[in-house]
Amino acid sequence: MINALSIEHLSFTYQSWTGKQNDPLFRGLSLQIPSGSKTLLLAPFNRGKTTLAKIICGVCPKYFPGEMDGLIRLYGKSLGDLDPWDLLPVCTYVSQNPQEQFVATSVEEEIAFPLESMGMDRATMKARIEEAITHWGLQDLRTSSEQELSGGERKRVLLATMQAIDASFWLLDEAFDDLDQHWRDQLKDLIATSNKTVLVLASRYLGEFDDLFDQVLLLDEGVVVKGETNSLLTRFAHLCGDDLPSPLEREHVLPSQRRILSCLSLQAERSRVSTAESEHFTLEVPQFQLQSGELVTLVGPNGSGKSSFSRLLCGLDAPLGGQITIDGKPYEGKQLSKRVGYLFQSPDLQIFLPTVAEELSWSLKRRSDLSRKEVEKQVADCAELFSLDLDDTPTTMSYPLRKALQAAVYYLLDRPFYILDELDSALTYQSALSIIAHLRHNGAGILLITHDRQFADKVAQRSYTIEDGRLSAV
Amino acid sequence: MTTNTYIAGTGWLYRFDPRAKLLLMLLMCVWFFLPVSLLHLSIVVGLVILSGSTNAGWHHAWRTFVSISPMLLFMVLFMPFNVRDGSPLLSIGGFTVITAEGLEQALRLMSRFIGITYVCTLLFATTVMHEVMLALRWYHLPYKASLVVTLAFTYIPFIADGFSQISESHRLREAEDEKKKKFGQRLKDLVPTLTSALVVALRSIPNLAMSLEMRGFGREERRTSYHSLDAYHHVCIHFILSCTIPVVFWFANIFF
């Protein structure tokens, strides 16, 4: 059988911007993906999973400089002889971060763009776009812009684009992340029933992966490891620290002061300005409560209003009706922002200074009750707790470290309540749990937003769900 | 990495052919530099804002004004440097602060700036980007150049979006008992926000280039188009209107 993808002795080291030589990411990596097969490549964080995907697509080291050696062939053709645009009908990549792949200003345009590039006639394009839009439930969003979509909706647009292109090789990087259960099942069905060659890259083993793949591989120490699936999964769980006891089991949360964050008859509205026919999205929260020391999860389908609710709860948006109280006293706007910490899904929008030390001390320096020495001590202790190097540059740090830095910033703010937006997305369970444990050290109440029911069941003391814009207790 | 500037609506500007609208925009931009009276210029600017508000909504008109207000403030601040040898209008201790001619020059400059801004933003608020692209290609602008133009007009709001998200993040990081910030501190705080917005924007450049190439930008075969401008009727009338509107404004200045 011909190999769809063949990689021989691949070595890659990212170019260093700091003068310090980077460690090689791949050291003679070899990988063969037979045509028509379904492969799962598991890789713990920071082992080069996304880099490998970008190398296969021909955009690394072109746009992400580094030293590369080795031979890569796609359906027998050497990648060195092809440009990224030549791969369009052959290989489609779905990025872990959907935002970085959007090039057009509406959903329909996004799906149409690659088809136009292939010179497809209008009738064929129309048929393919309609099929993909219907399959991924994007009918009401076809004229919406990327900014108006939730994380899961963005992922569905990329999957619809992949389906419309109809390439023979699908390369899916954490494609199940951001999707709610319905769309995860849909993606699973699509992979199972298609005749395509599928390579799924994942940093967590999800329940949906059971019986879906012909082969399971592990990326570790710069090479691909083959073997019996169960032993690979055990080794993978060990690498991710999933076989360690949960940090939440060890902790004893003792709130210094028992506080209650409540919402009563909260109402909010949101509109999509780029779509004339769409109805206003309304959010209703009849009742919500979060107490000090509690770990509560919020689950719901894509676009159901989880982020809208979070923005209300931390005072970034004002509700149309109802009120938010802490210990019975109403709060709004900035006063609420100072009591409810909101960790965005993307850490990059919350860290912005040149070094970790500056990042951690930014808020502390503004406090009137802390001397310079106290600030330095707190910053040093916090960096140690979160395993951060104070001289590191946040923009060049790995994703889990950036996520840890984001959490460390909020740890120092010592808010009585925190909202963690899809913390588990792109983190190992162990990393996510230790961040939660740190943030709860003083008995903070935590609201965890997640799509991963397995994770939610594992950690939640109570649960809320949002469906069609209405929040209710589970 | 691209932010849509389109606001859905059904007003007359939405029904206007994009090719004719593009021409109207260019002619109006030229019109604002014609030697017309300040009153007439202000009336035309007022009409542009009014038609913008009735088409894209008052909220859009207000947001546009807010976005250019720092520039307008600079124009006001620099007013004392305009036509210093004119008739004094306001003097403090023998120092002429504003002259009548200086005031008129500043108002003219502001009116032109407001007018051009509203005309350009109205085009992108009432026309979906792929139609702007089709209109540019109808004028025989090469595809790559059209793409650059439309990307530029979606990338600038993307940077603005990044700036507002980072500002929100700053707000969420304020300490509970933070010292009251002085004006200087507020300005100083803008530096990391602007820097990080710039970093986010710069980091997205290779991603955008990567995504365009992965979506086939650069392929040799002739690119087709999913959309067309066939749905627009009476194109000829729209072109006549596009040419007539600036001419009518010009004659109104002469006769009234």
Net shape of chain A: globular
**Largest interface, counted by CB within 8 Å of the partner chain's CB:** A-B, 73 and 60 residues
Largest sheet of chain A: 6 strands, mixed
Query: What's the helix count of chain B?
Result: 9
- The multimeric state of the shown protein is heterodimer
The CATH superfamily of the largest domain in chain A turns out to be: P-loop containing nucleotide triphosphate hydrolases
Extended strand count of chain B: 2
Radius of gyration of chain A: 23 Å
**Radius of gyration of CA atoms of chain B, rounded to a whole number:** 22 Å
Percent range of helical residues of chain A: 25-40%
Residue fraction in strands of chain B: under 5%
Unreliable stretches of chain B: none
How far apart, in Å, are the first and last alpha carbons of chain B?
48 Å
Report the CATH C-level class of the largest domain in chain A: Alpha Beta
